[in-house]
Amino acid sequence: MKRALLTAALLLAATSAWAEWVKVAETRDTVFHVDPASIESRGSFRRVSVVQDYAAPETGGVRSRQVTYEIDCAGERLRSLAVAEHSAAMARGAPVSSSARESEWLVVAPRTGSNIASKASYRAILRFVCSR
Fold first, then answer.
1. Where are the domains positioned within the chain?
2. How far apart are CA 116 and CA 44, in angstroms?
3. Fewest CB atoms less than 10 Å from the CB: which of 10, 69, 99, 110?
């Protein structure tokens, strides 16, 4: 398990160094960037690397988070597969933590009452990735 976490963290860190990040969404306190070159397609499913950059440090000194998402374009939902937190913007700086664990699926299709900022950001990620 430790080896899998280390591998996930190293892969996430390596991709951030040469990625061509594209800003796809922004909230009051977070900017979301996608690396188009990281998009992998399998039918209606995609995997992609996303950086969440925070305006102010989060708990524990986290300034950015790089997440590998699996996206179900047909089902309009996503889940995280791996997460690496960093002390500097754009997934740089000292690693704060990392994990390689699948989250529950989050449905991001527009629904009545679901226009909260985070869902809107995830919808923007889904639209960008699924259009490729």
1. 2-130
2. 25
3. 110
Confidence of residue 118 (pLDDT cuts 50, 70, 90): low
3-state helix, strand, coil in the chain (%, to 5): 30, 40, 30
pTM: 0.81
**DSSP letter (8 states) at residue 105:** P
| DSSP code at position 91 | G
Q: What phi and psi, each to the nearest 5 degrees, are found at residue 5?
A: -65, -45
Only one residue has tokens 């002390």, namely: 87
| pLDDT digits 0-9 by tens, 1-17 | 445 444 454 455 555 55
**Half-sphere exposure at residue 6, Cβ-oriented, CA atoms within 13 angstroms:** 3
